[in-house]
# Entry
Amino acid sequence: MKETMVPSPANLRILLSTATDQLRRAGIESPQREARLLAAHAAGTDLAGLLRIDALTGAAHATFSQILTRRLNHEPMAYITGQAGFWSLDLATSPATLIPRADSETLIEAVLHHLPDRTQALRVLDIGTGTGCLLLAILAEYPHATGIGTDINPHAARLAADNAARNGLGARCATLCCNWAEAVRGPFDLVLSNPPYIPHTDLAGLMPDVVAHEPARALDGGPDGLVAYRALAAALPTLLAPGGTSVLELGIGQDHSVPALMRASGLEVVETRPDLGGIGRALVVKK
# Structure
């Protein structure tokens, strides 16, 4: 019988110090915190639980070494751990979808501001749903709402459905694999979308974590970054109910060009809401 080689015990303090130095040299932001997060994941605990651990041994030590190498290669933490937080949700992640980001929570804030009655039985559509983060956050805030999420990637559509079940929202939503909204029929009271909006020539300049690991199809907005918005502008007048609201995520510098496309389709531009960095992030339009 072949003997299994078990890594020797590793003092956690020394392990974290070494990993922090390696992550810093690799250009990883917050290297100390990331080293601790990796160690906690390897040990099957959280940051509080890590305080009770003196050493990583056996499988935990081997796992830590493997996932540290992945992070040094700029694989996003959310893909390594397989989960990410968004709004009040705990979401599973995979390389089939973009990682939910805090900037996108600006869209949820915009919806809550413009549709303040939480008792509404909204019919919601999320185009390009990815993890389902936008749709599920809205369903969590509006207990009588129902929704549909669409995604062209079948793995993303499956992940969104799994996340709905994971957060106890599966009974109020469905996910469909289709191109944009081709498989659905309105009217919807609320249409959400975080479409691809990075101009094609700008993709190579993104952070290594993004350009090397997140799905290009979910990032590439075509030559000018506006291809998806043109499709949305054409579809929204049919998808929205009279008086219905759409909230779209914008990229940097798109807070003039995208509203112009929406106005040209006969939609009323209500607001462009900035994120915490002051960037116009959530465009609110109405039919």
Residues 16 and 36 are 7 Å apart (CA to CA). The chain has two domains: 10-73, 87-286. The first helix runs from residue 12 to 25.
